[in-house]
Amino acid sequence: MHSSKARYAQLIKAKAQELGFDFCGIANADFLEEEAPLLETWLKNGMHGQMNYMANHFDKRLDPRLLVDGAKSVVTMLLNYYPAQRLPEGEADYKLSKYAYGEDYHFVIKDKLNSLMNYIQAEIGEVGGRAFVDSAPVMDKAWARRAGLGWVGKHSNLINRSIGSFFFIAELILDLDLEPDGPITDYCGTCTRCIDACPTEAIVGPYVVDGSKCISYFTIELKEAIPGEVRGQFDNWVFGCDICQDVCPWNRFARPHKTPAFDPHPDLATFTRTDWEEITEDVFREVFRRSAVKRTKLAGLQRNVAFSQPALPEPNKPDDGQTG
């Protein structure tokens, strides 16, 4: 009889919804056979840039049983972060990725996952497991795809037919046998809007993103100076970038999130160009106090703002041979 597997799966999904998650799906905790060669090639080609952590724990990334002893199921949740009102995104505005408008999602989701874990242990009994939100070598999108929550689009983000792609992904890896969901079809079809729209040509082919060319990488992950050859290509993005998601037809279905913690700090909505360009430590600390933007620190944000300003014309250089 496997009815308990189905019953427990239903219990967990109902509780996840009650906690505010938009979707919940389940996959068997097996080795990610399909992803292994793709990840290996991606790393070999240096597409992780200076994100050295991507090359660590290669085996754990592909096998959840190395993260949780006796793992049987991966429970994946999606939490929408699409804002009710977008911050100004005109030609003269500095732009912030929508996921970073409000409170850092790690805090918000960790609390929900802990509540879900406590519920499982109270209702089902001794269940071992761990909660993950972007904090360990877990291939979120691969598990979400296996759990039927969407497909991985050509921009390498997960797309859900009901709400598009503006959501966070989190998991519980459990030593509990649960009824798994099956994957769904890829609905990208022949569309290449994301590939065509990327200003730095980071989407080097369908489903392959060279992370080291992505505006999000340059503005968040890269710790040193941004290379001069991409100057003028950032379209004023100063933390992250949403271009490939903004142009995706599936995001017609994006709907406002229901998580007040993801609403922007009230001052952010009225930020002018000058506010961004002259931001002080005090303002940075106040406006981004619990925000993911803290990752860049003030100096990183100032670097990004300075870099994404329109380039000034080069001063006339003296002719060769006349420099003294």
TrEMBL record:
Q: What are its E.C. numbers? A: 1.17.99.6
What does UniProt list as catalytic?
Answer: 134 (proton donor)
Which residues are cob(II)alamin-binding? 61, 134, 158, 169, 216, 241-242
Purpose of the protein? Catalyzes the conversion of epoxyqueuosine (oQ) to queuosine (Q), which is a hypermodified base found in the wobble positions of tRNA(Asp), tRNA(Asn), tRNA(His) and tRNA(Tyr).
Query: What Pfam families has UniProt attached to this entry?
Result: Fer4_16 (PF13484), QueG_DUF1730 (PF08331)
According to UniProt, this protein's pathway is: tRNA modification; tRNA-queuosine biosynthesis
The record, for HAMAP family, names:
QueG
Known cofactor(s)? [4Fe-4S] cluster; cob(II)alamin
What coarse category fits the chief subcellular location reported for this protein? cytoplasm
| InterPro entries named in the record | 4Fe4S_Fe-S-bd, 4Fe4S_Fe_S_CS, QueG, QueG_DUF1730
Keywords of the record, alphabetical order, are:
4Fe-4S, Cobalamin, Cobalt, Cytoplasm, Iron, Iron-sulfur, Metal-binding, Oxidoreductase, Queuosine biosynthesis, tRNA processing
Q: Which organism is it from?
A: Spirosoma utsteinense
Taxonomic placement: Bacteria, Pseudomonadati, Bacteroidota, Cytophagia, Cytophagales
Q: What is this protein called?
A: Epoxyqueuosine reductase
Per the record's keyword annotation, is Iron included, yes or no? yes
